[in-house]
């Protein structure tokens, strides 16, 4: 069993035509939780590794849409930047492969999948006129985005690191993790706003489709 924590660098990778929906930056946050490793048979080099973690992820997205700001105005293109903060209760389902001891150290890899359950989803957004990006149309801060983010996230988990024995069964460890999102984190109902050019009525456009990826630097202690 290990207590662990680390730094997360997360971002969105949108799917679709470039320019329709673009990633707009990396979010830095933390993860923390508990590793539990179960030895497979009597071989001390192979383990099933699971646990429970809080992973604080997110990132920024950027897209354009057209809107008629007043009844008699022309259509104007607005650029929207949205900064999401999505916190997942993460359950790793991994295989852990370890080398034999080299001095006081052992090297390992964890490979498998993570299942994340969203426990909180918030966002800040800012709309600017594309013709004059200094003209802010509207802003929102710390708004709830739970209605249009999925409850779950699946990801491929690849991690490599080292354990160092400091006495008895107590080991310090450090690792680098690549966590690749596998599913759209937005619901099918979440669509970017557009405007019908004939009558200026706001309608639903293409739906958001993006995955969250992150790199994590982990440290912890086995006891």
Which CATH top level class fits?
A: Mainly Beta
Distance between the termini: 6 Å
What CATH calls the topology is Porin
Helical coverage, percent range: under 10%
What structural class do the secondary elements suggest? mainly beta
- Write the CATH architecture name: Beta Barrel
How many helices? The count is: 0
By DSSP, the count of extended strands is 12
How many domains in all?
Answer: 1
Q: Order of strands across the widest beta sheet?
A: 1-3-4-5-6-8-9-12
Largest sheet: 8 strands, antiparallel, barrel
Q: Which sequence of SSEs, written as H and E, runs from N to C?
A: EEEEEEEEEEEE
Mean pLDDT over all positions:
88
What would your notes on this structure say?
- It is a single chain.
- The protein is mostly beta strands.
- It is 0% helix and 73% strand.
- The chain has one domain: Beta Barrel (Porin), CATH 2.40.160.20.
- It contains no helices and 12 strands.
- The strands form 2 sheets. Strands 1-3-4-5-6-8-9-12 form an 8-stranded antiparallel beta barrel. A two-stranded antiparallel sheet has the order 10-11.
- β4 (46-67) and β5 form a beta hairpin.
């Amino acid at each position: 069993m290990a207590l662990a924590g680390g730094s997360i660098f997360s971002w969105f990778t949108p799917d679709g035509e470039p320019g329709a929906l673009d990633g707009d930056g990396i979010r830095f946050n933390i993860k923390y939780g508990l590793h539990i490793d179960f030895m497979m048979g009597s071989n001390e080099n192979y383990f099933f590794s699971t646990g429970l973690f809080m992973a604080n992820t997110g990132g920024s997205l950027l897209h354009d849409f057209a809107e008629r700001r007043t009844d008699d105005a022309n259509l104007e293109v607005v650029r929207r930047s949205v900064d999401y903060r999505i916190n997942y209760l993460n359950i790793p389902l991994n295989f852990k492969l370890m080398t034999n001891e080299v001095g006081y150290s052992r090297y390992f890899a964890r490979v498998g999948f993570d299942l994340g359950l969203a426990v909180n989803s918030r966002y800040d957004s800012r709309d600017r006129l594309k013709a004059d990006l200094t003209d802010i149309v509207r802003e929102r801060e710390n708004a709830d985005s739970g209605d249009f983010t999925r409850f779950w996230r699946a990801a491929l988990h690849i991690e490599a690191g080292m354990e160092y024995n400091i006495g008895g069964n107590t080991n310090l460890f450090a690792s680098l993790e690549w966590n690749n999102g596998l599913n759209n984190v937005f619901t099918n109902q979440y669509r970017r706003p557009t405007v019908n050019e004939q009558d200026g009525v706001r309608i639903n456009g293409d739906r958001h489709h993006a995955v969250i990826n992150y790199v994590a630097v982990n440290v912890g202690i086995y006891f």
